[in-house]
């Protein structure tokens, strides 16, 4: 089998099982069980095919920073990418697709009935992560993801779909027209190194604390406010899809502990505004992907994309 051939390029162990891991929007991910467990990923070639050298460079920057700050941030797991038999991180199959393999890192996960302390721990983990990223002083931009939080960029891409052949959703177009001007007026500082997709699904949980991050391909120069917004959006919505600001404040408090710095009053206000802006940006991205038929988000049917747009644009 093709997967077994790819796996054998990385390890020489009897394979017991290979199972696909559902839920990823970008790469295709498999859990490989041998004497140990591993993660095998087929990279999204549309996004990353021309950027693998830069992704590798950024990963090695992060590994170095983790080693340097290990004594400062406590227990912290850094994903260990494996090299192929010829010493490369990425394997190219006969179809021209690129693959990557790394050791599986267990995680306790985030409890559905999370307590106040759990939300504080999430914020503290993100704060620690940003402290590590501060030591990454030579991050290269990944051209396909560097605009991921840039509302003006994605609004231009949306406007380019005026002639789309896909059926338009009048309510979505109306909401964009109604809100875009005020949201474009929200500006966040973008001089930091961030994860770029800091949702709780990309966090490693251990003994009630965040002990690391995975899916590091989106590490970029950007705004900590966008990382905070991605994190908050992934775990602080109530049953009606509205932000639970008690949970938001707990993550903010934890972040101040982990990053070892307090938010100013202006920063707290900007955080609140950017939660709406960040969510709206993702909604436009999904709607533009639907209109353009580009399938940026993997394994999403048009119907699923529109459901996501509805959740993100209407608040």
Query: What strand line-up does the widest sheet have?
Result: 1-2-3-5-4
CATH level-3 fold name: Aminoglycoside 3'-phosphotransferase, Chain: A, domain 2
**What is the H-and-E element order?**
HEEEHHEEHHHEEEEHHHH
**Secondary structural class:** alpha+beta
> What is the CATH architecture assignment?
Alpha-Beta Complex
Extended strand count: 9
CATH superfamily, by name, is Aminoglycoside phosphotransferase (APH), C-terminal lobe
Total discrete domains = 1
Overall shape: it is globular
**What is the percent of helical residues?**
40-55%
Characterize the main sheet: 5 strands, antiparallel
| Beta-strand fraction estimate | 5-15%
Distance between the termini: 47 Å
Please state the CA-atom Rg, rounded to the nearest Å.
20 Å
Per DSSP, the total helix count is: 10
Low-pLDDT sequence parts: none
CATH class: Alpha Beta
Kindly report the average pLDDT value: 93
């Amino acid at each position: 089998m093709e997967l077994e051939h790819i796996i054998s390029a990385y390890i020489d162990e009897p394979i017991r099982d290979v199972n696909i891991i559902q839920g990823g929007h970008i790469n295709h991910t498999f859990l490989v069980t041998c004497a140990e467990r591993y993660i095998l990923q087929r990279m999204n070639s549309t996004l990353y095919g021309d950027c693998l050298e830069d992704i590798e460079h950024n990963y090695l920057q992060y590994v170095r920073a983790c080693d340097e700050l290990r004594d400062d941030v406590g227990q912290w797991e850094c994903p260990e990418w494996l090299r192929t038999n010829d010493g490369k991180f990425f394997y190219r199959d006969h179809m021209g697709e690129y693959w990557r393999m790394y050791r599986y890192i267990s995680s306790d996960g985030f409890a559905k009935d999370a307590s106040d302390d759990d939300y504080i721990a999430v914020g503290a983990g993100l704060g620690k992560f940003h402290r590590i990223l501060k030591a990454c002083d030579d991050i290269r931009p990944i051209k396909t993801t560097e605009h991921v939080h840039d509302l003006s960029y994605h609004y231009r891409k949306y406007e380019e779909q005026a002639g789309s052949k896909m059926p338009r959703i009048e309510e979505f177009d109306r909401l964009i027209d109604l809100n875009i001007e005020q949201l474009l007026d929200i500006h966040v500082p973008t001089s930091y190194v961030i994860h770029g997709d800091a949702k709780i699904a990309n966090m490693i949980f251990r003994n009630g604390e965040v002990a690391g991050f995975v899916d590091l391909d989106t590490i970029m120069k950007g705004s900590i406010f966008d990382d905070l917004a991605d994190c908050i959006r992934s775990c602080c919505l109530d049953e009606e899809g509205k932000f639970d600001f008690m949970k938001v404040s707990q993550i903010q408090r934890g972040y101040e502990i982990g990053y070892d710095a307090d938010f100013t009053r202006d920063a707290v206000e900007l955080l609140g505004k950017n939660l709406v802006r960040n969510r709206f940006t993702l909604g436009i991205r999904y709607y533009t992907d639907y209109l353009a038929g580009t399938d940026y988000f993997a394994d999403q049917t048009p119907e699923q994309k529109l459901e996501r747009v509805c959740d993100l644009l209407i608040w």
